[in-house]
Amino acid sequence: MNILVVEDEPVAAARLKSLIEERKIGAEVSAIEATAEKAANRILSESFDLIFMDIQLADGLCFDIFEAVDPPCPVIFCTAFDDYAIQAFKANGIEYLLKPVRGEDIDRAFERYEALKSQFAKADLISGVKKIEYDTSPKQRFLIRAGNRLFSIQADEVAWFETRGRDIALRTFDGRDFYIDDTLNELERKLEPRLFFRVSRQRLVAFDAIEDIRIDEGRYHVKMAADPSLVTVSRDRVSDFRHWLDR
């Protein structure tokens, strides 16, 4: 079993590696990373069966990783804080361990992992631990709460979605902002791909909201409806963006 540990405290990382390999036969911690950026790059370049991850890292919160990459396998969170549990389980978390992590905690985490692995033996493990989508059709509307009111925004009213700190903002064509619970990764999966495109880690845009595209030294800059600033397409997304525009 190939395991990645994401922990920014060297002593804690070494202790966690020792506990994992001591408590689980066949488990090997093959990599340790201390930052969200390095962890994201490692996840993109290597394959892991399981990830043990601290939440507060040297360069921010670990949830930044999942704005760059989809969770590739189940994640066991190890933290000194108990107020990130909801976010953790949205990010493929299967167990939430509070520091100091003990041997019994590691045992419980592996028991949970094995139970899920058995439960979803006939399907891909990653698909099994993700939230089950009963309706696979594209998402049509978003439930919004404003004070003591609830109402819906239709998908075709949305100009773009944007990451703002830990939150996701939805901007309508008429310039209104609302905050929603979905991550950009989840929105990419749920929305109609012909109508919405992820131009960067921070922005997911609607085709109908694109008013102008300018090219400057190979960089693509997009003028969006309801946004006075230009949105820059990430370099690694330019080719896919051109293909999406030409569908």
CATH architecture of the largest domain: 3-Layer(aba) Sandwich
Largest sheet: 5 strands, parallel
* Number of individual domains: 2
- Which structural category do the helix and sheet elements fall into? alpha/beta
Distance between the termini: 42 Å
Q: Would you tell me the overall average pLDDT?
A: 87
In brief, what are we looking at here?
With 247 residues, the protein is an alpha/beta fold. Helices cover 29% and strands 33% of the residues. It contains eight helices and 17 strands.
Question: Which terms summarize this structure?
Answer:
247 residues, alpha/beta, Rossmann fold, OB fold (Dihydrolipoamide Acetyltransferase, E2P), 2 domains, 5-stranded parallel beta sheet, 5-stranded antiparallel beta sheet, 17 strands, 29% helix
